[in-house]
Each structure stands twice: as C-alpha cells, then as structure tokens.
Amino acid sequence: MSARVSSKSFGSMSVRVPPAVAGQRIGLMGGSFNPPHRAHVAISEAALKRLELDEIWWLVSPGNPLKSHSDLAPLDERLAECRALAVHPRIKVTGFEAELRNVSTVVTLAFLRRRYPDVHFVWIMGGDNLAGFHRWADWRRIASLMPFLVADRPQWRLKALAAPAARALAKYRVPDSQVPALALQTPPAWAYLTLRLSPESSSEIRAAGRLGSPKSSLGKKA
C-alpha cells in the first residue's frame, strides 16, 4: 500500500482529530479493532501510567493493508464498539484515517506531527506487531517520526525481540528506568513494556462469533 496521500487532505484542518495542546504526552494506538477487547484497554491503561501520558488515542483504521478485509466490520460499527468499551476518560477513539483516505501508519504519524508539532506523541504497538514491523511500509521512517512503545503479548516476546526490526533498532531501545520519559525522547527510541498479559485477541473473538459471544469483551468491565 502506498504511503501517498493528497497534499490537500494532508494539510486540511477539516480532518477531525481530537484536540491537543502543546506539551501534552499522547499515546497513539492504531489498529483495525475488529473487534476491540480488554487487552486493548489493559495496554492503554498500562501505557497511561508507565509513560505518564495525558491521553491515549485509539486510531481505528479503515483497514490493515497487511490483512484480509473479508471479515472486516464497517468502520462505524467498530468505532461504536470501541467507544462502548473504552470508558476510561483519557482514552479517545477516532477514525480520522478514513478522512485522510489513508491506511498507512507512516502517513498518519506524519500528519499528526505536522498538525501538532509541539505535542509529544508515542506510537504504541503489540509485540506481535513488532515481529512483523519490518514488513510495514516505511517502517524505518515510522521509527524516526516519534518514540514507540511495544506492549508485550502472550507468546510473542521472544519472536518480537528477535525480529529484523527489533535487531535493527536494538541500540535505540531505552532502559526500563527511562520508560516514564519515553514520550520526551528524541526518535528513534523505543521500549518493550512488560505487563499483565491478556489472552484475548480480535481474531479469536471473530472466530467465536462477534457480538453476543461469550468471548466478546463488550459489556464486560475493563
């Protein structure tokens, strides 16, 4: 998938993003959220605390270019599910990538850096994402745009830390003692966050059936 986006939409103030002010520390967690589940909430709450963030934005994607869209729920449905689950007042749910007509992370992050040059952003991904990060469009540019946090996922730690991107960026990994200030680090800079692991995954929830399934996280306390 091309990382190109029209210059008009890239700079347009009409693209609806959450408000932010200079100096804030904001985590960005992108994904299909198809559907969202308690692990998304757990990662968000851990990142808010450990990185001393002001907010986390869930960037609900129109669709992941590396995945099949055959079972992708409509964006409006996924946004509604996210808002029902993410009740924490400092988690903001947005689908503005659809307004950018973009599904490329590098474009999204470059857009936010341009819109809010004085905000300290941190990109947040799971260990499973780090394992395949080297296949993302312009992944080295992503690492240069802002610091990123890798949240541990069940059975992924060894694969993630041995993956090509992790090895290539190993010298930029910050020690645990510096994790609270990760948002203030000059990129490339990243950290691997160990946290209480949740076994839930979107693919397993879809396999069990969407809403109403016993494995669905909607309606449960996060």
Account of the protein in words:
It is a single chain. The chain has helices at 7-10, 38-50, 75-85, 97-100, 105-115, 127-131, 139-145, 157-161, 164-168, 202-208; strands spanning 25-31, 55-60, 91-94, 120-126, 148-151, 190-193. It is of the alpha/beta class and 222 residues long. α5 runs parallel beside α7 (139-145). A 6-stranded parallel beta sheet has the order 3-2-1-4-5-6, with helices on both faces. β2, α3 and β3 (91-94) form a beta-alpha-beta unit. It has one domain: 3-Layer(aba) Sandwich (Rossmann fold). The model is unreliable at 1-9 and 210-222 (pLDDT under 50). It contains 10 helices and 6 strands.
* Total beta strand runs: 6
Q: Structural class, judged by helices and strands?
A: alpha/beta
Strands in their spatial order, largest beta sheet: 3-2-1-4-5-6
Number of helices: 10
End-to-end C-alpha gap: 34 Å
What amount of the residues lies in strands? 5-15%
The CATH homologous superfamily: HUPs
- Write the CATH fold name: Rossmann fold
Overall pLDDT confidence:
85
The main sheet comes to: 6 strands, parallel
Return the CATH architecture: 3-Layer(aba) Sandwich
Order of helices and strands: HEHEHEHHEHHEHHEH
Describe the global form.
globular
Q: Give the count of structural domains.
A: 1
C-alpha Rg (nearest Å): 16 Å
Question: What key phrases describe this protein's structure?
Answer:
222 residues, 14% strand, 6 strands, Rossmann fold, alpha/beta, disordered C terminus, disordered N terminus, 6-stranded parallel sheet
